[in-house]
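Tutorial, part two.
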Amino acid sequence: QTEGLASICFRRTMGNPFFLLEFVKLLEEEGLLYFHLGLLQWKWDEVEIETRTASTENVVDLLQHKMEKLSKEAQEFLQCAACLGASFEIETIEIVWQHQQVIYVDSSAAETGTEELLATIVEQNYLEKPEKSKYRWVHDNVQQAASFLIEEESHASFRRSIGKVLHRELSKNKLDACLFEVAKLLNADITGVTNVEYAKINLMAAEKARDISVFDKCSNYASKGISMLPSDKWDSHPEMAVKLYSLAAEAERFLGRHSQMDIYCR
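Running the prediction step on this input gives:
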């Protein structure tokens, strides 16, 4: 009797327990799966379920569909949180949310507090709280769905605006703790951008990546930092240029990309 329903659920979720539960919740919320009090059994229409869930061919679509039913403010909050990595401190998201007007040009000031919105999102089972002041996404697909709420044409500029806020507002210790994420945010939409301060952030991120032997990240941050230096970098910022080129060359050597290493050694 349930074979048809089970088949639909499997195709939509690939059997992932978390997403299977979310899909069944969605069916109930949409009235596609309901408990018939007269018959004392669950009822559903497989054809209607197929039709109504045709746009949710993967779990990210399913989650995004559910998130779009939240308030505009909660959706904006999810968009901000999606840019902060797999986990983040409450202080970090508070800073971002306090600067919501800077990030959302067309938005009024945030009326709902950070903790209240976090509680709502935890209740929706999108975030969990493993530590007193720390939150993390329950699954990387949930974070991805939240990031898809950001309009595609403004995605890069949105991320960069959050990076600017964190770069400006975080204390040195807090900045060090989320250095990779801040660097990634600042590196969004950087074509033709010259900014020595952001080059310095990339230098710090490259050094941190080198110190933990993550050489692909080291190479990426070093090359981004180089691209942000002015054309007269060897005259105006020789020390930073030497450090960035040295890090890039070292990373390429460890990655076995010797032709790239030679470019940085010239």
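The chain is about 65% helix and 10% strand. In part three we will examine how such features are distributed along the chain.
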